[in-house]
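Notes from the 1:1 (GR / supervisor)

We went over the backlog. Supervisor wanted to see one worked example end to end before approving the batch request, so GR pasted a single chain during the call. The sequence is below; no edits were made to it. Supervisor asked that the structure be written out right there so they could see what the output format looks like.
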Amino acid sequence: MPDEEAIFLDERGANRHTNPKHGWDPRGVRPTITIQNRRGANLRGVVAICADGHVVAWAFDQAVDGVKLQSFFENDLFPEIETGNRRLGC
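Structure output shown during the call:
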């Protein structure tokens, strides 16, 4: 497959309840950091980046499984890359 037809996939997650590890206050004043007690949502995302810079992204609040990944391919990624006549190399 030629390099210009390459598509890079990435799946990643994040949690909205991350705690700050440092703070800032004026010199001589001890920094205080306020942390919320409620848990944040776990977020997941899948991103496809084509060699020409075209990006297709999908975000959701549950774990990625085969069904969701296939849905991303069929409903989001493939329709986008078909317009450029690309193939997905697996």
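Supervisor's comment: The chain is about 20% helix and 25% strand.
Batch request approved.
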